[in-house]
Amino acid sequence: MQRKLVQLAWRPASARQPTERKNSAPCVFFARGNCRNGQTCLYSHEPVVEPDSTTIPMQDAQAAENTDTRAQVICHFYTKGGCLKGGSCPFAHPDPDPNPEAANATSLEAPAESDEPDDKPDGWIREISGVLTQFGDGVAVLKTSFQSDFSAVRISMLPPHSTQTSVSELLSDLGFAVSAHDIRVPPRGDAAHCAADVRIEDATFAKRFCEATMKNESIKVVRINAPMPRGSSSQRVECKKVHCSWHRPLRTVWLNFESKSMAAKVQARFSAGRSTVSGQAVNTSEVTGSKNRFNSQGWTVMLTKVPADATKADINHTIPKTIRPTHIELGKPSYEYDMATANALVKSKLMETGPLDWWEDATAGIGGKRAKAKGRFQDEGDAVKAAALLNGWTLPLNTKLQLNVQAIYSARFKVPERIFKVVKPAIETQKTLWLAKHVFFTPYKPSQANGQRALRLEGADNMAVAEAKGVLEKILAGEAAVDEKGDTIWTPAFAVNGSVSQKLKNLEEALGVTVVRNKRLSRLHLFGPAEKCKEAQTLLARLTTEDASTSHAIPLADIQFEWACFGGFKELTSILGQKVTFDIISTPKRILITGTDQDYRLALEMVTACQISNTITKATAGNSESKTRPVDCAICWSEAESPAVHTTCGHTYCPDCFETFCFSNANNSNTKADTPIACAGDLGTCQHPLSLAELQEHLPSRTFEEVLETSFTSHTRRHPETFRSCPTPDCHHLYRSSSSSSSSSSSSSSGKIFTCPQCLTIVCTACHAPHKGMTCAEHIDMVSGGYAALEETKKRLGIKDCPKCKTSIEKTGGCNHMTCGGCGTHICWKCLETFATGKQCNDHLNRKHEGVFDIEDI
């Protein structure tokens, strides 16, 4: 018998050539996870996956087996707001995203402030006392606007696809030049028509436009309220930013393994969050197996809610090499998706609400189950409007794909790093309470140039953010140093860098507190633990009683100032040391002595006996050495304290001297300069205007805002013909005097009535007195007593005023039907009721007063 040898060759399903699908019905075995035919199966292996919004992404996991995988799991106690281990906890303590629906954990230390373009101020505009004020370099007031300067209209019946540009062109055709930035085209409620709101800084625009379009039947125009736009500001809760998110497309993935143990290990890793896909946690099924003992890929783990852009390499990357699957099959994405198209769609919808100042696209391949983008509007009201109109809007990419839009409220601060270090424990305590109310605190990296640290509070609840802002302001304000009687602790020696100031530094190091000297207000502020600050106050009070220093000022004449500049001040410091400082920002210039009366008398003798001719001779030989050195403060002429302020024009200041200098110049109501704050370097001759960006960089946020307000107050004092205060005590709202604007007054004798939006007091903008319903002349006559005398005389003579036009009428005889000679109104003389016709007046007299004549006249 002849036998034939037959060689049997077996190939796994994955090695076979895929065949064309001949049936669209789903494969039952594939759904169970054990189809042995793989790509050669004639039935469909395409799953249908719907987006899901309930799963919160976990932290990225490291693929290496030798790392502590607990660091990739979020701490359960931290999410409850009460992990006692703090930084020593082996589990993750992430900062949640301000959008609770689309939260990916972020790092505790945010990037430098310069990496946050949405936090940059726009236009340097502030609303102060009801006035929109734009500042320029040197905190100069460039422009002021009142609410009465704005007017607005709503244009309806526009074409359905109208845009800001098309509306601007329509206005131009009608003879009105309006920028597209002043136009808002909200999402349409009526598919057949569109509407647009136009608001510009022109008090007469709305009236003129309504009159010009009165006979235009193609559009409908009505006047609407025109609220004044609000400017940006540090330390004020503002809402210009929106967070947008939408579900990314997902897919299902099948992992095939040779053994059940390997499949179980991988399934356990994904279930625990130790393995992720593109940094995102996914759902897993239980391990399923094949009954075919010849199938080397008979054990399957199914992953669901996998990012659609994940590749096989992304999945393999998160699994240790020793237990990687033999085959990976990717399901079809839940919907077709293009990130660039989605970003463009969302951005365009936001711009229909209002112009954007800044926009950040959602990034492909990075993030959780939701794509997240951010935008910042130019006007504060647009963010709230966009959230109300667009939240829940269906993106055209998929019928079930909805856009989530949240208006974000925020407040920003900037404080010296040495203060932040000691108040950080107090902030961390409050941070847990803020998180419970979905308010998120972000500290940025401190600036290397000036030691300032930027802070931010952010959340979707304006009341919660405002409450957190108040708490943070209190922490950053510190505690004023007072003695047991409640009196302020201060001695003149605190203002100079002498032995007493060195004792302050020693006290800070010993107690772990920070002491800030406010030379302008002669006050100390303490920062740190409450018990340490209390102990510091006791030591500071003792220090003031031990110090016998007093403060003296020696005003300098021109010849004495030259003597001080060219060697005299240097000679004084060589004898008295740091007890002497030079005040070159005052008028006149001064030498300040902080010491005993004997020190003061010695300095006064040297200043009085100065010989300018000898000093100038020395100065010509070495002028550069006699002037202030680069390390010297341009204000006090002593070595600048660290961290010193270095201006772009090359001069140096102590931080305290710089702050005092800024306040002093901003508060100078007598100055006519266009730039109040100019550099005082080179003996006050530099005069380089300090830019607002430079001032904001070197001053704490609270101080910077106070300097702006001080400059504005100084500006209003110099222009009393324009700015007037509300007459109500303690109400600081301002209004424009009608004498300063021809458009605000219809005549020289009376002005517009201003109703204060803060206290509702009514006042005339011309005579600045409350007299609603009266002219200025009538009010003046009334308060002077002439009005009462005139009324008494008219009553005695039987003279009455027309109820309509106030024309005086005297009845000498005849009936009680009177006709005003001023306006022609028919008047009942008995009760002064008015009528349109004489018949109506006669009927009234017959009905109410028993005839048109008095009985005694008949």
UniProtKB/TrEMBL annotation:
Catalysed conversion reaction: [E2 ubiquitin-conjugating enzyme]-S-ubiquitinyl-L-cysteine + [acceptor protein]-L-lysine = [E2 ubiquitin-conjugating enzyme]-L-cysteine + [acceptor protein]-N(6)-ubiquitinyl-L-lysine
Region (Disordered) location: 94-122
PANTHER family in the record: RBR FAMILY RING FINGER AND IBR DOMAIN-CONTAINING
Organism: Lasiosphaeria hispida
Keywords: Metal-binding, Repeat, Transferase, Ubl conjugation pathway, Zinc, Zinc-finger
UniProt GO molecular function: ubiquitin protein ligase activity; zinc ion binding
Source taxon at top rank: Eukaryota
Pfam family, one: IBR_1
All residue ranges annotated as the RING-type domain in the record: 629-855
Name under which the protein is recorded: RBR-type E3 ubiquitin transferase
Domain (C3H1-type) ranges: 21-48, 69-96
Zinc finger (C3H1-type): 21-48, 69-96
Top EC class for this record: transferase
GO BP: any one term: protein ubiquitination
The enzyme's E.C. designation: 2.3.2.31
